[in-house]
Amino acid sequence: MMDCTPKCRLSKHAELILSAITKEDAAKVRAILPRVCSNFARVTDQFGRNALHLAASCGKGDILEWLVKDQAVDVELKDLESGWTALHRSVFYGYLDCTIKLIQLGSDLGCFDKESLSPLDLIRLDSPFQITTGGKCIVYVYTPSEINRRNQ
Question: Is NAD one of the keywords UniProt gives this record (predicted)?
């Protein structure tokens, strides 16, 4: 284990942790993270992203669940760059399984980022489909197949 304390905030540790999450499977991540940093569940990079943010961004549902249930990571923690939670990230990158898991684990669908957008707003803004209703209001329609195409 690297020389750090339970209150470690070293950005180098965060870089190693986030890199492991993007490259390794859940079993390896569970083995690696505690050896990298004593505060692996809470340390953040220069953009305020933690392990949960990256697990949600990469569609790593097993890691995400482990971080929340076993490591007590706060699902409502926002990054510094955009004010996004892990839920914003899973929605934006189209990982529906992670989105569902985060909601089941207590994520708030009404949580707003720095631009006052909720995770559901990100879906609406990203959708290429627009339906009008007599010119009075605009309704956006979202289809899950659009998410799948983006992830391929």
Answer: no
